[in-house]
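Re: weekly structure request thread

Next one in the queue (303 aa):
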Amino acid sequence: MTQTSRRFLPPEAVARIARLEIVARNVVEGFLSGLHRSPYLGQSIEFAQHREYTPGDDIRRIDWKVWSKTDRYYIKQYEEETNLRTTLLVDLSESMLFGSGSLTKYEYACQIAAALSYLLLRQQDSVGVTTFDDEIRSHVPPSSKQNHLHAILTTLDHDQPAKKTNLQKLLAQVVDEQTRRGLIVVISDLLVDREGLFKGLKLLRTRGHDVMVMHVMDDQELDFNYTGTTKFEGLEEVGDLICDPRSLREGYIKAVTAFVEDLHRHCARQMIDFQTIRTSQHLDAALAYYVTHRVGMRQSVRT
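Done, posted below.
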């Protein structure tokens, strides 16, 4: 660790970042080794910076130094040609603080982002992270450098949830700044104005971005298995409520089911991959979802 990082990062923050990296590494390595034949491995480029020459290529881009050593022609390629840029958008709104288990939705979202970043960098892909509430809080530009992971983990550890979410505003800003098409992964509980959300997602697709939505929800938000008189503390400027949850459960489950189905239908219409992920699920679920999507996307690009 550099002297600068020691100066600005207290020891407890360093420990949290290290734990987050360990979680990401263990989950990814365990996930990949557990596959008999990973559909992801082998999908990365064979050469990180070169491609074998084919008739019709611009001869000015032939790497003559490589030719002198191998007696074969290779074309120079650059990062923007060899790597699909992935931007992870992590929700920092106050509602992400909720958690009935060992992790809050925000902590779980950070672990998803960390694991995906580790996986992408391991495969020499380019990844960046943007955290947001009603505006962008932090932004780490995409890169494929191996030491890039530390910058991502530091950002995820530094920011804490607060305020409301304005996804329409955020996604419009992402569109303006992401001039090059890539993959945008939204990691959020999506407890936002749906009309604004749908407009923002449509704008991403209109501009040619591939989009994935990881809808992170706590078990209790989906199942509502509360018993006895319970006080519910409101987040994002919503007042508290004391009630008997059993009398509300049937109506609540219907409303949540309709909410999730509406999100799924809209994403399907826009050709956006959507999945609701419970915070009780192992991170393998998020990785498997990403891997399946990524391979399918690369195959569609080839055809």
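The beta strands are 50-52, 74-76, 85-91, 126-132, 136-143, 183-188, 210-217, 230-232, 241-243, 273-278. The two ends are 45 Å apart (CA to CA).
Next request, please.
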